[in-house]
Amino acid sequence: MIGYDPFNEPMPSWNGLLDLLKTIYPGNYDNEKLTPLYSQVFERYQKQDKGSIMFFEPGQFPDEIGFNIGKYNPNFVFNVGF
């Protein structure tokens, strides 16, 4: 196996106006929701296979404008199609 791709085209959701405003600010969804989630998933992959790589994508809107996923890791592969 080459690697893991846990989520295809992650899309933010919201529950209320304040949450919507926070979510549509570019980079916020990636920083507050996806980065912690990807980190947890990657840690579990690493427990099973130390050499594994993980493909990841930014949130579909609006984070494709200002993509910023947490820490950099040589086992992360940015998976995006324009």
Question: Care to describe what's here?
Answer:
- By secondary structure, this protein is of the alpha/beta class.
- It has one domain.
- It has 2 helices and 3 strands, in the order βααββ.
- Strands 1-2-3 form a 3-stranded parallel beta sheet, covered by helices on one side.
- The longest helix has 21 residues, at 28-48.
Give a quick set of tags describing it.
34% helix, elongated, 11% strand, three-stranded parallel β-sheet, alpha/beta, 82 residues
How many helices? The count is 2
Helix content: 25-40%
Rounded average pLDDT:
79
Categorize the overall geometry. elongated
Total beta strands: 3
What are the SSEs and their pairings?
Blueprint: E1 3-4, H1 17-23, H2 28-48, E2 53-56, E3 76-78
Parallel strand pairs: 1-2, 2-3
Short description:
By secondary structure, the chain is α/β, with parallel strands linked by helices. It has helices at about 15-25, 30-50; strands at about 5, 55, 75-80.
